Amino acid sequence: MKSAQRTEQAWFEQLLTTLQGAGPVGEAIAATIRGRRIRLGFARQSTGACWFDWRRLHFGVFLNADYAGRQPDDVSLVALLAHEARHLQQGVLEALSVRGELEAWQLQYDVLAWLSAEPRDEAWQELRALDPISRADLQRARALMRQLAGPRYRIHCLPLWPLPAEVAHRFKVVNR
Fold first, then answer.
1. What values do phi and psi take at 150, rounded to 5?
2. How do residues 93-137 score in pLDDT, each as one tens digit?
3. Domain residue spans of the chain
4. Contact 102, 130 (CB under 8 A)
5. Considering the entire predicted model, what is its pTM?
6. How far apart are CA 58 and CA 40, in angstroms?
């Protein structure tokens, strides 16, 4: 194994150790990452992190390569790792929905709170309080996420619910 790979593995192991210390939620996510042997790494991308590397066609958690120079105990990176790992737990259909994103953002908030870095921004706090079952709350979540992440965040492209549930809802509405 190359020295750079060993160094990257050690960096992610330290990140996982910090995540494990983020209460029961962080401990569970860290156990999932280790238990499922989820691939961790860095990738060039326009977002902070992703759960699928399109260049290599791999599932895993890939942080933006620009973060490689940060300390592995950086709580924002720990929370981002948890966020993306939640998507892997959810599966593709759930992850590619506003509901899946809301649940991952709420987990990210909880990890930050456990690590004494609870977001103080009102939009974050409102996002944490939303109900992932309510369509009205999911529409509000979509707007709040766009506000927090910026206009390049493509949450507006995702259905509110996972695609099969969204299609069933649309048919139900149409057939009324």
1. 105, 165
2. 999 999 999 999 999 999 999 999 999 999 999 999 999 999 999
3. 3-171
4. yes
5. 0.93
6. 10
